[in-house]
Every structure is written in structure tokens, then in C-alpha cells.
Amino acid sequence: MNELVLISVSGEDRPGITATIAKLLGDWDVDVLDVGQSVIHNHLSLGILANVQSDAESVFSALRTEAEKLGVQIRLIPISEESYDEWVGLQGASRYILTLLARKVKASHIAKVSEVIAANGLNIDNITRLSGRVPLVDADNTSKACVEFSLRGTPKEGFREQLLAVCSDLDIDIALQEDGIYRRNRRLIAFDMDSTLIRTEVIDELAIEAGVGDQVAEITARAMAGELDFRESLRKRVGLLEGLPESVLVKVAGRLPLTEGVEHLFETLNHLGYKTAILSGGFTYFGDVLKKKLSVDYVYANELEISDGKLTGRVLDPIVDAERKASLLRELAEQQGISLKQTIAVGDGANDLAMLDVAGLGIAFHAKPLVRESAGHSISNLGLDSLLYLMGIRDAEVREMNR
How much of the chain, in percent, has pLDDT values that exceed 70? Predict the structure, then answer.
């Protein structure tokens, strides 16, 4: 008579424990229906859902004897056929990946997130740390930590809003993605430039050089917050730059402050063969500078008209606005022969929302409130390289890649 049993093994980890247990079960021709193992700080947790087809008591006795020799604890938990059938019936249920990002993950973060997950009727199947091992020192303002939750079930209405509230209360970031084949096969990543790849708005920098900084900054802020039409605001701002020497572009380009984590992110993406693009409402001159510096594949931005070594105060058509960004992302995906679900888009302003919406994964990065609330995902507390965690890439894998 068959007996279903969950074999739970725990104790100090060392080579050979799993092999020994598996060999014993193999000698008794036991079927393994499910298996999982994890090691946290040299402590092993091994679970095997087994179908013991004959002489179960002898198998169980041998397991207890072997566990004692190995110096580990073992629990043998009977599983009913009804319980097993119910488990099998859950096959194909919706699955999600929830990524928790913080400078340092605290127990209160996991507690609150787990409470929200449970309140929405979701099961946590697995929790995995993606970030590197943390030294016993206070986290500085560039440290990063990440744990990934594998969830099963269908979230209730309002789940995302509850997660956003947790982010606001605890100063953490949470991303929720449906777990599927496209999540593991992203191929194209498009970035806004100003206040995304760089920590400034280039047009504001040019305006300072032209002595109209306050006027342009006010228009920029209203445009990024969605209070002004982007095309109209761009023409107004560029008009205030009329007469600015072309040499100022070189000066401003030389002091562009890169966002935290940008160089690490692009080194990794380029090494792994991802295609990258800058789709910006800024200017091609500065996009081309970043293209060379970061080895970006494509740059689409606005072209400043220059005559006799000076800006004319006009921007050439076509203007890269919200609709143009979304259209360019579609065109690049088609050009690469990939689905839009295999694309990622990252931006901070209202003129990025259309692009974020059509991408398979749209991320509002250190964004204005309107954008953060409207986008599917947001990163507000860490650097841009934390995007790698949302792609399921571990720090250990990146270190191994760079050896």
C-alpha cells in the first residue's frame, strides 16, 4: 500500500546529507513527488514529498537511523490523498513575484508585507535573498538589499494600493509581477534620460547658463508633473535659450551627474547581451554623450536647432513626447523581433507614462507622485541598478559573471 509522507530534514549543513537521504530512498524505490532545499547561514532545510510504495515502516525507521548518524533532525509528516489531490489541483494557479527593496531589510518590512499578502488570500511558496550578504555595519546611503517572494493565488482588488501604502509607511520599494516566461526573458530596456539616467534636467542646466534658470525650471516642473502639454512646454523652454553659444553644450555635458547605480547596471546589461535605448524628451547631444559612455544601443531625443554656433531657440520636428516614446518602444521591439512583454521601460515624468504602460515591465524611477501612482511599479529608495533585482538577477550571479 502506498503511503504519502513529507520528509523534513534540518540541521547544520555539510556535503553529502542530501545524497545520503536520497540514496536511502532510492534503495527502497521511493517516488519523489516534490523536493525543495535551502541553506541559510550553514543551516540546511530539506523537504521531500515522497510516495513510499512498500514497507513504509522499514523506510521510516531507516530514515530515522540515518538522520541520527548525520546529526540532523528529521520529521515524517503523513499526507492524505485528499490533501495531495488538492495540491495537484492547484497546478496552473496564478503565480506572482513580489520584490522587496530597501537599503537594509528589517523584520518589520517582512512582517508587514507578509501580513498584506496573507490578508489577500495569497500563499508564500518561497522567499529568496537576491542581494549580497550584509556585513554587520550600519547600511550607508548607497547600500541595497532585496528579498523576493514567490506567491500563489489571485490577489484581491486593492492589493497594489495596499502595497503602495506599505512602501510609503516604511520607505521601501515593492514590485509585483506576474510570474511567467516573459518575466525571465526580457530583451530590451528603454530609459528616459533626465532625472533617470542623470540626476538633473539638462534643459535646466542650459537655462542656468543662459541666465533664465528660474523661468525654465518652473515650466519644467509643471510639465513633468503633468500640468502642461509637453510639446508646448518644450518649445517655451527652448525659446528662452535663444542665442546660447553651442560651446555651452560641451560645458554642461562635461558635468552631467550620473544616477546612483547607472554604470553598474549598464555594465551588467551589456555583458548579458540586452539591448538598451534612451527615449528622451531631452536632447540628442547629451543622449549621444551617454550612448558613448554607457554603450547604449539606441538614442532618440529632441534636436536643438543651431545656426552660426548658437541656439536658435527652436527644436526640430519630430518632437519626442509621451506618444512618440511609446511608439518608438513598439518600433524597437518589432525591429528586434520580440514581444512588447519582453521590454522594460524606466522613467520619472508624466511624459514617460505612455511608454511605461506599453512595456512588459514599466518602472517609475524616483518619480513624481502622479507618475508613481499611475505606473505599474516604482523604485524610489535605491539606485538604478536595483532594476536587476526586478529582473531576478542576483548579486552573486553578477559577481560570478565579472570574475
Answer: 98
